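Example record used in the benchmark description.
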Amino acid sequence: MNDLMNGIMALQTTFQQVDHLAKGPGATKLIALKPLLESSSLELEKEFSRILRILQPGLKQKTKKKLLGQRLKWPFQKADVEQILQLLERHKSNLTFAMNSDQM
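Model output (structure tokens):
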């Protein structure tokens, strides 16, 4: 779970840097970044929605299980988390590369 949170936070930092560039004086020159940002945003929105759908049933049952003293089970297998982390890292790398290309 920590790896997943770290991956999401790292991607968030990259998106914040992209947002800063997109609002800066050279925003019109971001040729490589704009289309990549749009496609990454769409794909990540779908992935985060999927993750949230998986986690939400567990959140609803959390109170019931807590009252019963049962342990909550993490709904993702190791392979699932690794796949999500690869997706996050790919988007982070692509956005970073595009930012660097546009700044040259």
